[in-house]
Amino acid sequence: MEYGKAWLNYRRIEEKSFCKYLTGIYSQVEDDKINSGIKELNIAFEGMYGIKIPFSRWETDSGIQLKISSDLSKEEYYIHPNGNVFLIEGGSSTGILYGIFQLLRMLMEETPAKDIAVRKAPDNPLRMLNHWDNMDGSIERGYAGESFFFQKNKVMVNERTRDYARLVASVGINGVVINNVNVKQEATRLITKEHLKELKKMEEIFAAFGIRLFLSLNFAAPMELGGMATADPLSPEVKVWWKEKLKEVYEHLPRLGGFLIKADSEGRPGPFTYNRTHADGANMLAEIIKPYNGIIIWRCFVYNCKQDWRDKKTDRARSGYDHFKPLDGAFLENVILQIKNGPMDFQVREPVSPLFGGMSATNQMIEFQIAQEYTGQQRHVCYLLPSFKEILDFRTYCQEERDTVADIVSGKTFSRSNCGMAAVANTGNDLNWTGHDLAAANFYGFGRLSFDMSLSSEKIAKEWIVQTFGSIEKIVKNISQILLNSWETYEKYTSPLGIGWMVNPGHHYGPNVDGYEYDRWGTYHRADHKGLGVDRSSAGTGYSTQYHEYNARLYESKENCPEELLLFFHYVEYSYRLKSKKTLIQHIYDTHFEGVDEVETMLELFEEVKGDMDTDVYNRIAARLKEQLLHSKEWRDIVCSYFYRKSAVPDEKNREIY
Ligand code: GCW
Q: Matching InterPro entries, A to Z (predicted)?
């Protein structure tokens, strides 16, 4: 069996007004990206209209023309009809490539040719995917099979690499980190000659789609590879070692974007061992790769993972800010701090990390997770775009205007150009790329949103559905509804009001309310017989004070705190009345029952499209939805009975609680 095409399906379409331009393609420039673009046009036109069009060496007064325009910024495109010619202009061949994909998207949506006129530059300079692929082929938090980049400790470059690059470029992603941030064993050796040859081939394929290759680095490589006694970033010998090593890397991979580093985090080596700061560590590497236009992306996921659960003063949520805020302004221009969207770890609901807007003199980018580690592991539907939109729209109050997370990561707030959005990837070598067919909407959607932050979750969902499944009204309507409600549904039947966790330790799938409660990871809900939640106000851990005034004040009190985050910021008694007038305990019961009912509705909506969808795809999705229903019941029952037993307050509606 062959792997699928995801959203690059190019099925036959009814709307044919564009066909008048299909007399020939002329391109002013010729390079690898233009070649990729022309190939794509051909695949697409053949699929959509059954037409092959000739490539013309001479400019004619009809057909499709690809041109560079000096009015456009590098990655910007402008597609529009001009008499008998349809123009695809770009600030560079990358811009043209993006223009081509935009045109194809609109044609797939059956837009009449006369209505296609779009000019757009990407909103974020960097739009990246981070793969957590290991060289043995496994994927950390991978839910769609094994790696298609690595198998048996070797780099793999083949047709699938190209098809992956097509998917990535089609949604405007321009950087990919191929290996796990936990760089161990063979992965440490990725920067040696042995692997660089294959990586070069991958770099070239990526480059033909406007994508820059990045690698994750092991901070202790001077010891593990170089046999040195130290990896101290200020040691002259260590610097010399890195300098030579990275020179060799760049000789093989001249277009390498740079490196992603997880240091002093969850047992990974870093500058702390040598009493150096993260700025010392990041700057040492950044200085070395500056001549190659390389970038160091340094992760801020630094916290104490050996906490004593009885210690109520230490708060993992505080740690990113506590570690990095004092270093604001200390990083070189080619260093970017990569910050997870929330202060904990990709829970279904978290506040926005206070580092956004907390640092004004440092390059920052946001890290989302489309690998659904804590949101159903691609066995449950959880369309994350509504959550991403909320996060990006969050006002930080770091200044009077242009202060949202979107403004900050896109570089508007502090006039920066080394910044943007990254997501932990959700792909693997499964035939449908993402395990759950509907999880591909997160891959598609993340890319589209990183390119154009003004797009709504609804618009993105619709685009994806039409390209993936076709434009039959019922499919569009029902699957949109399934996707758009899925994040809140998932939230309802899992952990309540921002508290997070309550999952089985290790693999993180399925409910276990106390799974992490008495553990060392700093992830507590603090439930007892009277209530639950963590006091993170100034009287508690003080986390709320890491925000600017307006938000700090909101989070400070139970009354003002946005209710969806109530238990993240406060310890609340079961009898506390929420704005709905329900008690907290009744809210927990009700939302859990509602969540399950909503999954039932999803299944019904899905059953309605049975006749309109490819049978195999239908069966695959239906099977996952059934599993989701079963597991949502498990979540409901375990969470409800836990809190019933703790609180001894019965359900007002007398439903079965075990
Ligand atoms: O969410 C946690 C994951 C780890 C991951 C870590 C990180 C790659 O459980 O698997 O490690 O975060 O982001 O570094």
A: A-glucoronidase_C_sf, GH, Glyco_hydro_67_aGlcAse, Glyco_hydro_67_C, Glyco_hydro_67_cat, Hex-like_dom2
